[in-house]
Amino acid sequence: MTLMDVLTGFARTGRIGPLECGMPLTEAEDLLGPGRPHPAIRLKGPDIDGYPYAWGGLNLYVTRRAVSGISINLCPGSTAHLPELVLPDAESYTSTVDREQLLAALDAVGCERHLNDRLTFGKQSSILTRPADVYAVFGLRGRDDQVPHPGRHYLLAMYKHTA
C-alpha cells in the first residue's frame, strides 16, 4: 500500500481502512491508540463537539463522542506522518502530491470528481469526489517547502465531514 492508495481509497469510499464517519471515538482509539486531543477538549472536557483528536497527519473530528469528520493533512516537501493502521511505514513516503498526480490517480480508479467552487480561489483549488463526498484542497508551496515544481498546486488536505 502506498500513500496514493490511501488517498484514492479515501476519495472513493470516504473511509480510511476501518475508520469511517459515524464510528464511536472509543472504537477508533481501540484501533489507533489514544489520540492527541485538541486543546479545547483538554480545557472543556471530552463532551465538547467539533474538535479533532490527532494522530500525526490524521485528524478525527468528534461530535457526541462519535467520529463526525476525518482529515488527512500533508505538508508538501516533507514526509507523511500517518498512523501505522492508515499507512504502514508512512514516514518512508513523501507527502508531496501535486494536483495532476492525484487527479490522474482518481481517473485511473474511476473516481468521479468535480471542481469545488467554494474552496477554489486565489492560490488554492479544491475538488469534491463522488459519491463519497471527500474534499481535496490544493495550494501553492509554502516558503520553506522543498518541492520539485514550485508553481504547481500540491495536496494540503483531504477531508470528509458529516452533519
List the helices and strands and how they pair.
Elements (H helix, E strand, L loop, with lengths): L2 H11 L11 H8 L3 E2 L1 H6 L6 E5 L2 E6 L2 E8 L25 H10 L3 E4 L8 E7 L4 E5 L14 E8 L2
Antiparallel strand pairs: 1-2, 2-3, 3-4, 4-8, 5-6, 6-7, 7-8
In short:
With 163 residues, this protein is α+β, with helices and mostly antiparallel strands. Strands 1-2-3-4-8-7-6-5 form an 8-stranded antiparallel β-sheet.
Structure, described:
- The chain is an alpha+beta fold and 163 residues long.
- Helix content is 21%, strand content 28%.
- It contains 4 helices and 8 strands, in the order H-H-E-H-E-E-E-H-E-E-E-E.
- Strands 1-2-3-4-8-7-6-5 form an 8-stranded antiparallel beta sheet.
- A hairpin with a 4-residue loop joins strand 6 and strand 7.
- The protein starts with a helix and ends with a strand.
Spatial strand arrangement across the major sheet: 1-2-3-4-8-7-6-5
Sum up the overall morphology in one term. globular
Radius of gyration: 16 Å
Q: How confident is the prediction overall: mean pLDDT?
A: 90
- Helix/strand-derived category reads alpha+beta
Number of helices: 4
- Helical content, roughly? 10-25%
Uncertain runs: none
Note the run of SSEs as H and E.
Answer: HHEHEEEHEEEE
Q: Characterize the biggest β-sheet.
A: 8 strands, antiparallel
| Beta-strand content bin | 25-35%
Question: Distance between termini?
Answer: 31 Å
- Per DSSP E runs of 2 or more residues, the count of β-strands stands at 8
Notable features of this structure?
163 residues, alpha+beta
